[in-house]
Structures are given as C-alpha cells and as structure tokens.
Specification:
The chain is α+β, with helices and mostly antiparallel strands. It has two domains: about 70 residues, Multidrug-efflux Transporter Regulator, Chain: A, Domain 2, CATH 1.10.1660; about 160 residues, Regulatory factor, effector binding domain (Multidrug-efflux Transporter 1 Regulator Bmrr, Chain A), CATH 3.20.80. The chain has eight helices and twelve strands. The strands form two sheets. Strands 4, 5, 6, 7, 8, 9, 10, 11 and 12 form a nine-stranded antiparallel beta sheet that branches. Strands 1-3-2 form a three-stranded antiparallel beta sheet. Strand 2 and strand 3 form a beta hairpin. The termini are far apart.
Length: about 280
C-alpha cells in the first residue's frame, strides 16, 4: 500500500479527526479510494489530499456539506465561480446583519450608561430626535398582562418580517389617563425601529422639546415618578403637548431584578407664554 495514505496518516497531515473522515465517507462526500476487505481499513490516494483540501476550504467559506457534495459532483470553473459568488452575497448579508446587531447592542449599552449617569437627578428638559415606533394597541383593561401581550406581538411581527427594530420596548399612556392618575394604563405598546416602509403599523415620533425623568424600580411604583415630573412641568410653566412615552432602558432583557428596572418617561412640551 505504498501509494496510499492510511486514514491515520491523512488525519495527521490534514489535522482532521478520523471520526470526521468516517462521517464524510458515510455522507458520500469524501470516500476512500480503497477499503481493505479483510480489516475494513480505509486508504486514500495522493490526489485525494487535494480533494480534501477543497472540501475543507469550501466548508471554511461557509458552504454546507450537502452544498459541497452537490458542487463536487459537477465540478467546473464555471460552477465554482457561481457558488463562490453566491457565497459572497451570503457573507455580505451576514456582515450587514452583524453591523445592525452591533449597532443595537451599542445603543443598548449607551442607554444604560446614560441612565446611570443621570441617576438620582431631578427632571430635566432635553431635545428628542425624530424616531419611529412599531406599534400594537393594548387591549382593555390595559393591565400589565395586556401590555405584555401587545409587546410580544410587536416582537413576533418584527422577527417574522425581519424588521430593523432596536432591542428596546416601551408604551404610550394617554395624557388624560395620566392626569387621572391611571399611570399604568397604556394604550399602545411599541418597539423603536429604523425608518422603513415594510410595515404599516409604524408611528413617526417627531423630534422636539421634552420633559423627562428616569423611573427606577418595578412598573407598578411608577406613579411617584410621574408626580415628580408633572410637578416639574407645572413649576416651570411647561404645557404638555402629548401623551406620555415610556422607554424601557433596563428591563427583563438585561436584568432579573425588578428593583434595577429603569424606565425613561417623557412628554413633549412647550413653554407657556408669560402672563
């Protein structure tokens, strides 16, 4: 068997396990040139070393074993170029997905850092940039259960339709409910999303001056934080122009301790004219 390589030799030369070579044999992807009928030992030719190199390179490029097998059955320069071009397109899509994922994770980190930076600070004014929200209505009686269902429906739609959402959720609470001290009765659940025309239930949130405050702790205790923010607006003669928007900054996605939850509350406002 001087002109053949044993499976052990091939395993050492190519840095691949014997089990993998046996698996490739069973798949019909890479089969030995000769099998000893007496002991079942597998042997390979020198040319097969090149073939195995090709398989390993294609696998490293991201092709499935089944796709590699199909390619090698009709292996020409033209077919190889076609498959490699297809794989370049797949890699480009993966890179874009990774870019978006990195952007989402970076934004989440920045939000947490910003919230901690303003920890314990009083209400303040800030200018909100324009953004877009993927929305779902919250059904009566507008409890945490209904809010959770609407939020999950948003996520389900976003994942199914591959919408460019950010890793954040929130709710809108009508102003009349806030003024009636019904602080947790949200009418709409939402997910911040990049501007897109791929869904009809997207709301544009215009930029503008906002009064805002971070609430820390579980959601049912948010009333005291609202009172502080409303007092701030009255004392500074700020007219409320919108419903309340609540953005979850730290929630079940990033902690299992509800006492660590952080929710940013904001109203669009304008300064009342002096009397």
């Amino acid at each position: 068997m001087e002109d053949y390589f044993s499976i052990g030799e091939l395993s050492r030369y190519q840095n691949i396990s014997k089990q993998t070579l046996i698996f490739y044999d069973k798949l019909g992807l890479f089969q030995p040139a000769y099998v000893d009928p007496n002991n079942g030992y597998r042997y390979y030719t020198a040319r097969q070393l090149d073939e195995l190199d090709t398989i390993l390179i294609l696998k490293k490029s991201g092709l499935s074993l089944q796709r590699i097998k199909e390619l090698l059955e009709h292996y020409t320069t033209e077919s190889s170029q076609k498959v490699l071009r297809e794989q370049l397109g797949a890699i480009d899509r993966q890179m874009e997905e990774l870019r978006l994922l990195r952007s989402r994770l970076s934004q989440r980190c920045s939000q947490l850092e910003d919230a901690n930076l303003h920890k314990g600070e009083p209400p303040r004014l800030e200018v909100l940039e324009e953004q877009y929200l993927l929305t779902r209505p919250v059904e009566a009686p507008y409890s945490l259960r209904e809010i959770s269902i609407a939020t999950k429906q948003c996520f389900a739609q976003a994942f199914q339709e591959e919408l460019p959402i950010f890793f954040q959720s929130g709710v809108r609470v009508p102003l009349e409910r806030i003024l009636a001290k019904r602080y947790t009765e949200a009418s709409t659940a939402f997910l911040p999303i990049e501007k897109t025309s791929r869904a009809g239930n997207i709301q544009r949130l215009p930029g503008g001056l906002c009064a805002t405050l971070y609430h820390r702790g579980d959601y049912l205790s948010i009333g005291a934080t609202y009172e502080r923010l409303l007092t701030f607006c009255r004392e500074r003669r700020l007219k409320l122009l919108s419903d309340s928007y609540e953005f979850c900054v730290n929630d079940y996605i990033t902690t299992g301790d509800e006492s660590e939850y952080i929710t940013q509350i904001l109203f669009f406002v304008e300064r009342e004219a002096a009397v």
